[in-house]
Amino acid sequence: MLVSPVGACTLGPDYQPPGAPVPAAYKEVKGWKIAKPRDHLDRGAWWSIYYDPTLDALERQIDVSNQTLAAAEAAYRQAVALVQQARAALFPTIDLLYNPTRSHSSSVVSDTGTGFTRTRVTLETTASWDIDVWGKVRRMIESNIDLAQASAADLANARLLAQNQLAVAYFNLRAADSLRSLLERTIADYQRAQTITENKYQQGTVARSDVITAQTQVKTVEAQLINVGVQRAQFEHAIAVLMGKPPAEVAIKRAELKRRVPMVPPGVPASLLERRPDVAGAERRIAAQSALIGVAVTAYFPDITLSGFAGWVGPQLIPINVANKVWQIAGTATETIVDGGLRRAQLAGAEATYYQAVATYRQTLLTAFQQVEDQLSNLRILGQQQRVQDEAVNLARQAVEITLNEYRAGTADFTTVVTAQATLLTNEQASLTVRQNRFLASVNLIQALGGGWDVSELPGYEELRHHRSCVDVRGAIRGNISPELPACL
């Protein structure tokens, strides 16, 4: 993982990544083969595997206007500023004092007043330097660098979550479009059946109840069709908000959900250590807490400070007379003798926080493995269900054709036709739901695998050290420039 330079004379433990339970292979990969293993995740634009230009255009808007991402980017810049604040403590503090003073005094003797005016100018440079003998400042810099890297990982995770949410809303919207098309076809089929019943009723071969039943079928599906509009509007509004735009400004043309669901090779479980930004962020926080243990240890040793000043004192506005030069240099060592157990408690607290970070990291990693296994099993099981469900649709469609022909011939009643039609619609809706869930499982698997992100995108020490409040356009904060701020302050 990424580390920062630490001097040789630095107290406290040197960070070592903790062990974590990492299986050799995913359980759900066994027993089934992922189709098209040549498919891979494009770093950043992972959604390109769906070959959907509309989805691509929508996803790219997240980096431009998503407000959650903008907040995470601001938090990252704040973390970078803390690195630079901590680094400033390595250097002496130098102040310049320029103090011109003009004074007047007078004395009274009898009726005659005498006095004089004096000018005194002080030009002085003062300096103080808290010498980092035991590495306290360096440990603080190390901790802040780790936290800044964790913040960059948080930013990448916020981006991945927003991209995932948009993709989920998009495929739900496409499923709503497909359901709309299905219901429109069903209404057309039911209207044809209604025409048959009306003709037979006019011929006197069926009762009026058959016509009413056929009309009821049509109206029932028409009501379902109207309700689909409610769902679709909500998904479209959600996409707009994820893009950082008012819902009134976003309109997505109607299109059906595709048939092919791309499969994603999960790789080996150990890759999640570097492919998941939340796992990387949790690991960086362990490193930060390890450095803070070193900070707590340095409290047992004296604090050594150098201070001094040099300047001139004289009667001129710009005192340049060497004879008026003054200077002083001093050293101070401060050691706490009695603190009532404060330092011991602070060290114990730092160690406890470290172990808490280790536990959080391991739990984050276990949750990551669970999410991958869940989505792999979803894809495998839903793929099996899709095949069986599609067979059920074909059989139900044949049953409708047969019963409708029998109804025309007068060998079956209309109740049999209604039952067959209802069964067909139920199976077609179930098939669409399974396909929708397969797309969602595919998107969630990509998120669980890190979405093409890599730990190498975390900023290094030199990048953080030279950062000047500029919005980084690489890696974890790529492209997210706030319109209220200049590119570099």
- Chain-averaged pLDDT: 86
Report the sheet-strand fraction. Answer: 5-15%
Measured distance between first and last alpha carbons: 30 Å
Q: Might you state the CATH topology name of the domain at 50-87 and 142-299 and 344-461?
A: Outer membrane efflux proteins (OEP)
Strand order in the largest sheet: 1-2-3-4
Count helical runs.
Answer: 10
Largest sheet: 4 strands, antiparallel
State the oligomer: single chain
Total number of beta strands: 4
Low-confidence stretches: 1-8, 32-39, 469-489
CATH superfamily of the domain at 50-87 and 142-299 and 344-461: Outer membrane efflux proteins (OEP)
CATH architecture of the domain at 50-87 and 142-299 and 344-461: Up-down Bundle
**CATH level 1 name of the domain at 50-87 and 142-299 and 344-461:** Mainly Alpha
Which structural class best describes the helix and strand composition?
alpha+beta
Radius of gyration over C-alpha positions, nearest whole angstrom:
37 Å
- What global shape is seen? elongated
How does this model look, in words?
With 489 residues, the chain is an alpha+beta fold. The protein has a domain at 50-87 and 142-299 and 344-461: Outer membrane efflux proteins (OEP) (Up-down Bundle). The chain is built from 10 helices and 4 strands, in the order H-H-H-E-E-H-H-H-H-E-E-H-H-H. Strands 1-2-3-4 form a 4-stranded antiparallel beta sheet, with no helix packed on it. Helix 3 runs antiparallel to helix 4 (136-203), helix 4 runs antiparallel to helix 5 (208-242) and helix 7 (277-298) runs antiparallel to helix 8 (342-409). The longest helix has 68 residues, at 136-203. It is elongated, with a radius of gyration of 37 Å. The protein starts with 52 loop residues before the first helix and ends in a 24-residue tail after the last helix. The model is unreliable at 1-8, 32-39 and 469-489 (pLDDT under 50).
